[in-house]
Automatic annotation (TrEMBL):
InterPro entries: Ribosomal_uS2, Ribosomal_uS2_bac/mit/plastid, Ribosomal_uS2_CS, Ribosomal_uS2_flav_dom_sf
Domain of life: Eukaryota
Entry GO MF terms: structural constituent of ribosome
Pfam families to which the protein is assigned, alphabetical: Ribosomal_S2
Protein name, entry field: Ribosomal protein S2
GO terms (BP aspect): translation
Keyword terms of this UniProt record: Ribonucleoprotein, Ribosomal protein
GO cellular component, one term: mitochondrial small ribosomal subunit
Bias kind Basic and acidic residues: ranges: 346-356
Chain positions covered by the region annotation Disordered: 335-365
Organism from which the protein derives: Monilinia fructicola (Brown rot fungus)
Keyword Hydrolase among UniProt keywords: no
Family: Belongs to the universal ribosomal protein uS2 family.
Length: 365
């Protein structure tokens, strides 16, 4: 009750008290200050426009500057190049000589010739490494030089001699127009086989050998195309009808780079008296092939070297054959059953002979 009376009493006093002059000024809406600020803004805008106009009238445009002439004393590209050549000539004889090093692709791109065979090259190709002594074949005893750490070492002199002999065989077959087949079915041997076949103008095989391709070639190779060529390796027309019923061709020489995996191929070649060349390791039988080459058949570098040498030998034989053909010497004989090519003149001659024979038969009757 006391608190309520105090609030009523003080509230009435606050409402009854007169307001001060400062409070009335706060609640008033005078515009004098706003008008003064607007006038000041207009004056500043006018002064800024006057300044810009004066700058626009008094501004001077400078003409574009011309490019400076090239300094004749400045160093040019030609002078730098001349200085480089001078330094190169003066310092060409300085430094050390880099010895020959092994480049794997060189045996494929540029294989060595038979005359380039050396014992150092064969050893660098790991041709002397054989298999463990427990795996050796006694027939290879004449090719083994010794034993080191339980591994047979192949005599590189035997390898070089047999490789040169096989190169002579390949060259002779190519010179007489024979068909050479290069076979290498292990991983990584495809490039060497293809390169050797292209050099010797022969055939290549780097996939699995199909059994019966020689003994039953008329059935397996019946769809293979055959063409007749002359001494200059140019296709001769007129034999198309005869070649349709021609038997499948057989190679005149087979070069096998891995005989252990291609025993069936070597057996078929033996049945048809086809000479063979093979890389014989210490665990293989040299009697499987006609011309063995004792070497390491597990080394890809050794296989590339042997294939390249034999390919170069075939290339040399083909070159000699073509040179002899240009002089009119034919180093090979065509098959006796081939006969003459069928041309328009031969057909007309045959028709005339047939008509004459028919006429003679009619007169005799």
């Amino acid at each position: 009750m006391i608190l309520r009376n105090i609030a009523i009493r003080h509230g009435r006093k606050a409402l009854a008290a007169p307001l001060r002059l400062s409070q009335f000024r706060t609640l008033s809406t005078e515009t004098s200050t706003l008008e003064a600020s607007i006038d000041n803004h207009n004056k500043q805008t006018n002064s800024l426009e006057a300044t810009l106009n004066s700058l626009h009238l008094t501004r001077n445009f400078t003409p574009p500057q011309k490019k400076k002439a090239r300094d004749p004393n400045a160093t040019s590209v030609a002078k730098d190049f001349q200085a480089y050549n001078h330094i190169k000539r003066r310092t060409a004889n300085l430094g050390s000589v880099i010895p020959k090093h092994y480049e794997p692709y060189q045996l494929i791109i540029n294989p060595p010739a038979p005359k380039d065979i050396t014992l150092e090259l064969l050893m660098a190709s790991q041709s002397h490494l054989g298999h463990a002594t427990q795996l050796w074949n006694p027939a290879n005893q004449r090719y083994i030089y010794g034993i080191r750490q339980g591994i047979h070492i192949i005599s590189l002199e035997e390898t070089a001699a047999h490789l040169r002999r096989c190169a002579k065989v390949v060259e002779g077959v190519a010179y007489h127009g024979g068909l050479i087949l290069f076979v290498g079915t292990r991983a990584g041997q495809d490039s060497a086989v293809v390169k050797a076949a292209s050099l010797a103008k022969g055939c290549h095989l780097f996939n699995r050998w199909v059994a019966g391709s020689i003994t039953n070639g008329d059935q397996i190779l019946a769809k293979c195309a055959i063409k007749a060529v002359d001494a200059n390796d140019e296709v001769v027309a007129g034999y198309e009808d005869k070649l349709l019923s021609w038997k499948a061709l057989k190679p005149d020489l087979v070069v096998c780079l891995n005989p252990l995996e291609n025993y069936i191929l070597l057996h078929e070649c033996g049945l048809h008296n086809i000479p063979t060349i093979g890389v014989i390791d210490t665990d293989a039988d040299p009697t499987w092939v006609t011309y063995p080459i004792p070497a390491n058949d597990d080394s890809l570098r050794c296989i590339q070297l042997i294939a390249g040498v034999l390919g170069r030998a075939g290339e040399e034989g083909q070159r000699k054959r073509l040179e002899a053909a240009k002089e009119g010497i034919v180093t090979w004989l065509p098959p006796p059953d081939l006969g003459e090519p069928v041309t328009a003149e031969s057909r007309a001659r045959a028709a005339a002979e047939k008509a004459a024979a028919k006429k003679r038969g009619a007169n005799s009757s």
